[in-house]
Design a protein that fits this description.
Mean pLDDT: 97
Distance between the termini: 16 Å
Order of helices and strands: EHEHHEHEHEHEHEEHEEEEHHEHEEH
Organism: Clostridium neuense
Oligomer: single chain
Enzyme class: oxidoreductase
InterPro entries: ASADH-related, Asp_semi-ald_DH_pep-lack, NAD(P)-bd_dom_sf, Semialdehyde_DH_NAD-bd, Semialdhyde_DH_dimer_dom
Protein name: Aspartate-semialdehyde dehydrogenase
Number of strands: 15
Radius of gyration: 20 Å
CATH superfamily of the largest domain: Dihydrodipicolinate Reductase, domain 2
Strand order of the largest sheet: 8-11-7-12-15-14-13
Strand content: 15-25%
Shape: globular
GO molecular function: aspartate-semialdehyde dehydrogenase activity
Length: 359
């Protein structure tokens, strides 16, 4: 008899849902037992739903092709078939908040790829290597929801993964201000080049809502638990610009940072090299062996060359040097669809499993 936990994917037919489907094939802890999407997709097999709109380079996994898609609002039925769900639905934020809470109140933990609950005070926003201690707020959240097992954990925005990990390795030096410009791949909008002709030979200087997420979410990730809520840190101050560029996958960030206690370049590189988190210590299946990788080559990192580092779960850094206005500047890169989306959520679920929150 299988000892794997039964998993549901809400929003399984979209781009992030497709990533979940591929990442969960033959996973050592989890087994997909239920997939759900909108009412128009319900009642048909997964293959029938996505055969003409499969967006990934690898083929649709055989294990999922004949699984029948359910309506995400069939909460009673879905809850009886799974131990927890990943949520990657594409709906208005208010509807997402409501449906995620409904699943939690049906005693189904929710690992969310969405932004809807990121600023709910008792919902942790987790980068597993950086703030695993925030999972402790789950007990307070369950008290509010009136649940024994159900809760919500959110993954942060994909744009912050390209620079927050590098800054996190340097928190002992107390960063005071950060300026970041992110150059974000089209998969962050859920599209391919075929679906996004306006981006070809072009750059779009505005991504709605992205700059606020890039400026505010890191402060919650770096915050602390106080009573029944997570309190965001006050410093560093962050300002950002977020730009859509003609790249399929991989968010690049140009980062400028000042510190209360300015480190040497050698100290920074040593922190990058040796930074590890709980996923590495626990040897979680999706965890990169090296969370941060620094390139000495001034022409690296590049999305095309480096986004798949550590199976898309590693963070690449390069071009560290002193700056005339800030203390230092550097470039960071993350795979937005893996580390920044489905892979980051899966790594969070693995951490939840090992820490005893998923049963």
């Amino acid at each position: 008899m299988s000892t794997k936990l039964r998993v549901g994917i809400l929003g399984a037919t979209g781009l992030v849902g497709q990533r979940f489907v591929t990442l969960l094939e033959n996973h050592p802890y989890f087994e997909v037992k239920c997939i759900a999407a909108s009412k128009r997709s319900a009642g048909k097999t997964y293959y029938e739903n996505v055969k003409d709109r499969w967006k990934l380079n690898k083929p649709i996994p055989e294990y999922i092709k004949n699984l029948v898609v359910k309506d995400i609002y069939e909460i009673d039925e879905i809850s009886s078939e799974v131990d927890f769900v990943f949520c990657a639905v594409n709906m208005p934020k208010d509807e997402i908040k409501k449906i995620e809470e409904e699943y939690a109140k049906h005693e189904v933990p929710v690992v969310s790829n969405n932004s809807a609950h990121r600023f709910t005070p008792d919902v942790p926003v987790i980068i597993p290597e950086i703030n695993p201690e925030h999972l402790e707020i789950i007990e307070k959240q369950k008290e509010r929801l009136g649940t024994k097992k159900g809760f919500i954990v959110a993954k942060p925005n994909c744009s912050i993964q390209s620079y927050v990990p590098a800054i996190s390795a340097l928190l002992e030096f107390k960063p005071t201000k950060i300026l970041v410009c992110t150059y974000q791949a089209i998969s962050g909008s859920g599209k391919t080049f075929k679906e996004f002709p306006d981006i070809v030979d072009n750059t779009i200087p505005y991504i709605p809502g992205e700059e606020q997420k890039s400026e505010d979410e890191p402060l919650k990730v770096w915050g602390h638990i106080e009573g029944n809520k997570i309190v965001s840190t006050v410093n560093p101050k962050i300002t950002s610009q977020c730009i859509r560029v003609a790249v399929s996958d991989g968010h690049l960030a140009a980062v400028f940072v000042s510190f209360e206690k300015k480190p040497s370049k050698e100290e920074i590189l040593e922190r990058f090299k040796n930074f590890k988190g709980k996923p590495q210590l626990l040897q979680l299946p999706t965890a990169p062996e090296h969370f941060l990788t620094y390139f000495e080559d001034d022409f690296r990192p590049q999305p095309k060359l480096d986004r798949d580092l550590e199976k898309g779960m590693g963070i690449s850094i390069g071009r560290l040097r002193e700056d005339s206005l800030f203390d230092y500047k550097f470039v960071g890169l993350s795979h937005n669809a893996l580390r920044g989306a489905a892979g980051g959520a899966l790594l969070t679920a693995e951490l939840l499993y090992k820490e005893g929150y998923l049963k």
